[in-house]
Amino acid sequence: LGEPMYLLESNPTVERIAKLIYDKARELGVDIVGVKVWETPTSFASYAER
């Protein structure tokens, strides 16, 4: 389908996915503060470096 595939060495929890997105954005030079990934309308995980 032309979409990139990411292989993870660990269980793909929403917390790990948030960090993966954060790290990839930093790698691409994005000026990023944090990432929030929603699992459900009331459940999410976020990642930000201090």
Would you kindly provide a written description of the structure presented here, covering whatever features stand out?
The protein has one helix at residues 14-27, and strands at residues 35-40, 43-47. It is α+β, with helices and mostly antiparallel strands. It has a domain at 14-47. A two-stranded antiparallel sheet has the order 1-2. A hairpin with a 2-residue loop joins strand 1 and strand 2 (43-47). It starts with 13 loop residues before the first helix and ends with a strand.
Task: Quickly describe the structure.
By secondary structure, the chain is of the alpha+beta class. The chain has one helix and two strands, in the order H-E-E. The model has no long low-confidence stretch (mean pLDDT 92).
Question: Layout of helices and strands, plus pairs?
Answer:
Layout: H1 14-27, E1 35-40, E2 43-47
Antiparallel strand pairs: 1-2
Given as residue ranges, the uncertain stretches (5+ residues, pLDDT < 50) are: none
Content of β-strand: 15-25%
Proportion of residues in helical segments: 25-40%
Strand order of the largest sheet: 1-2
The overall pLDDT, averaged over residues, is: 92
Label the structural class: alpha+beta
- Counted by DSSP, the helix tally is 1
Task: Please write the string of helix (H) and strand (E) elements.
Answer: HEE
Main beta sheet: 2 strands, antiparallel
Shape: globular
Q: What is Rg?
A: 12 Å
Beta-strand segment tally: 2
Distance between the termini: 37 Å
